[in-house]
Amino acid sequence: MAAATAPENVAPTPAPAPVRAGKSPRRRGIKWIIAAIVIVVAAIFGFRYWHEASLYVSTENAYVGANQVEIAAQVAGPVTKVYVRDQQPVKAGDPLFDIDPAAFELALARARAQLELARQGMSQESAAVSSAEAVLAQRRAEAANAHGTYNRNLELMKSGFLSPQGIENSRAQTQSADAAVKAAEAAVAQARSTLGRTGDENAAVQAAIAAVKQAELDLGRTHVVAAADGNVANLTLQPGNTVQPGVPLFVVVSDREFWVDANFKETEVKQIRPGVDAEIKSDMYPDHPFKGTVQSLAAGSGAAFSLLPPQNATGNWVKVTQRVPVRIKVLDPDPQHPLRIGTTATVKVRKTE
Predict the structure, then answer these.
(1) In degrees rounded to 5, what are phi and psi of residue 196?
(2) Which of 260, 326, 257, 265 is nearest to 289 (CA)?
(3) C-alpha to C-alpha distance for 5 and 271, rounded to whole angstroms
(4) Are 347 and 58 in contact (CB under 8 A)?
(5) Which of 75, 72, 81 is nearest to 219 (CA)?
(6) Which of 101, 165, 272, 351 sits 20 to 30 Å CA-CA off 117?
């Protein structure tokens, strides 16, 4: 018996459509938990921001500063030796460089010789005073003798033993002796005036002593030392360079005291007072905050003290919020986190009522 065959024109039965499964309660719960966490975190950060803003004023427009000691020669001459290199730390009293001392040693020897000559000259003038005083004593003795002779001759003339011509001669001798005394007194006065004070109080000796001290000072200035602890910066000095007095050669940036010049908006300055605590975060060490205190507030905005202050009396004026520099002293500089002048920082200052 033959097998039955399916008709060729019968269409195949379509596959059943997949059934969409609904969202499980567990997945919906996780999403709600995540949303709640986000809201709570946002609320916490929002509260902290509001709390910080209500208690502190802050700015990122702040720059680290420190004392800079300009090193300059006080005498002229060629440099013979440089003891330091650029960026080297130094202590107060450490040698920096030497200037050729030969010319200053000769000047000191010359000044000492002039001092010895001044003392010799004072001795000669003192001897001249003694000589003039001796002459005065002699003239006074001669005058006293002349007056005694005149008195005796006057008695002889009264007794008739001396002629009038003799008494006239005796009177002339007396007058001559008195004149000699006056001349000797004038010579003593002149000698004493020329001498002046004696010893190291003598004017010529004092001038010579001052010249010696100046020569010693100049000789000592050929050896230049650091005036403060710090770091050498901008050093280009080399042996053989000729230096002139008062011309800056390099600087030593002091590491004893640091501060931050923070430029706050003019609308924030009224909430800042000297002595208020501050927090400083250097961009070099964002994870190492420094303690600070407000030292002073500038008397004007930064623009007022610029080289070319703005001219606001014009027709195209636009109001711009100005910034006022506030100096904040760093209370706890850390050698392990050395600050560098000119670097930026973020400053937060507690508001005052």
Answers:
(1) 70, -145
(2) 260
(3) 100
(4) yes
(5) 75
(6) 101
Is-contact 287 337, C-beta < 8 A?
no
Angle at 192 between CA 188 and CA 195, to 5 degrees: 140
Distances (CA, A) of 328 to 13, 36, 68, 279, 322: 87, 42, 17, 9, 19
Token pair in block for residue 213: 């001290």
Q: How many residues does the chain have?
A: 353
Name the strand (E) or helix (H) holding 224.
Answer: strand 223-225
Helix (H) or strand (E) holding 70, with range, is strand 56-72
Using one digit for the tens of pLDDT, what is the confidence trace for 157-209? 777 666 677 667 777 888 887 788 888 778 778 777 776 676 677 788 889 89
The overall pTM is greater than 0.90: no
Contacts of 63 (CB under 8 A, 6+ apart): 260, 261, 342, 343, 344, 345
Angle at the Cα of 103 (from 100 to 106), degrees rounded to 5?
135
Q: What is the pLDDT of residues 262-284, one digit of tens each?
A: 999 998 888 899 999 999 999 99
Q: At 296, is the secondary structure helix, strand, or coil?
A: strand
* Cα–Cα distances in angstroms (integers) from residue 52 to residues 16, 55, 240, 348, in the given order: 63, 5, 59, 9
d(CA 237, CA 79): 9
Q: Token pair for residue 279? A: 């927090």
H-type helices in the chain, by residue range?
Answer: 25-55, 102-159, 164-195, 203-220
Residue 271: CB partners within 8 Å, gap ≥ 6? 57, 351, 352
